[in-house]
Amino acid sequence: MKSLEEARALDAADPLRAFAAEFDLPDGVIYLDGNSLGPPTRKALTRLREAAETEWRHGLIRSWNDADWIDLPKRAGAKIAKLIGADADDVLVCDSVSVNIFKLASALIEKRPGAVLAVDAGEFPTDQYALEGAARMTGAPLIRLEAGETPENAVLIRSLVHYKTAEILDMAAAERIASARCCDIVWDLCHATGLVPIDMTRAGARFAVGCGYKFLNGGPGAPAFVYVAREEANTMTQPLSGWMGHAAPFDFASDYKPADGAARFAAGTPPVLSLIALDAALDLFEGVDLSALETKARALGDCFLACVRDLGLEPMKAPSRRGGHVCLKAGNGHQIMQALIARGVIGDFRAPDLMRFGFSPLFLSFEDVWNAGRALADVLSTEEWKRTEFSRRGKVT
After folding, report:
1. Alpha-carbon span 337 to 339, nearest angstrom
2. pLDDT, position 310
3. Which of 86, 136, 315, 390 is the most exposed place for a label (fewest CB within 10 A)?
4. Residue 342: other Cβ atoms inside 10 A
5. pTM value surpassing 0.90
6. Would you name the residues annotated as active-site residues?
7. Domains in the chain: ranges and CATH
């Protein structure tokens, strides 16, 4: 992509271009952080208002039944199941990724006496921290691996799309290796769901977690999801045996009896407003070709890299198959990113030196990418990033 005219020609030929109108983004912003927090869909905002002003304000507690709040975790889970190649009843929206990793890892270790907990040393930090907690509670050893290693007799947490490199792993091949080594993989789908085609059933994958606020656009802190194949779920005891995971929660029995299937991985009362936003956002994916999403995301990233090729920034080594973001290394990456954000080009920074740019294919255009590349070039050429205010760091980078 060598000119604005070429970018506009690519947009004119884009089969996904109409989806941008479904999002409510502010004017003058080029949003390259949908891989971290997706923007709101218009339908999600409308449903939130309806839920707050009608179902909550007027329906009050009756809306658990009248508006069917109680089954939201299963309804939203069924929509996500279509995106990851799973049976509708095997996916439940609940809790956070960290909590769901802890629940699955602890339950699997209980089934595998003598097994170890394992995670790549470069894996997303919450995955590692949750396993540290599971190791303390269960007494199972925790080992950190080099990228791509598969241990024997282990419960392994592994991302399908890496949060820095954006490499997409071959799930089926990994499952074959794990099966031969008596290793259960819990897949972290946070940077994959809603962006790349996934077929858990065909790949032989039985366990996964994922979040609702990245490419699924469910809103800040949107609840996560858990996937457990039914034949596995009914043999597992999760450690957070809360009342919503009970077979009959409103019988108010003193003793715990787990629900059937993935539903037993629920714990506390679901966050209804957050769930409603996520459930509405998921409707956008009905009938969408996930292969087209991955193809466009890769094309947007390639065009951005071409636009910034001569700026003296070092891109992370490109994997053979890449997800929805790219990273550029720069010693002053935080300041450069803050200068870009001040111009309305929003990406994020990952310590120690990575500027990360996400390319969500449903709302971004090739013209957006061209303009973002020009903005980055100008920030560097003018040395605008050296301004004092861009050195200050917020709690979130």
Report:
1. 5
2. 93
3. 136
4. 15
5. yes
6. 124, 188, 213-214, 356
7. 4-16+288-391 (3.90.1150.10), 49-285 (3.40.640.10)
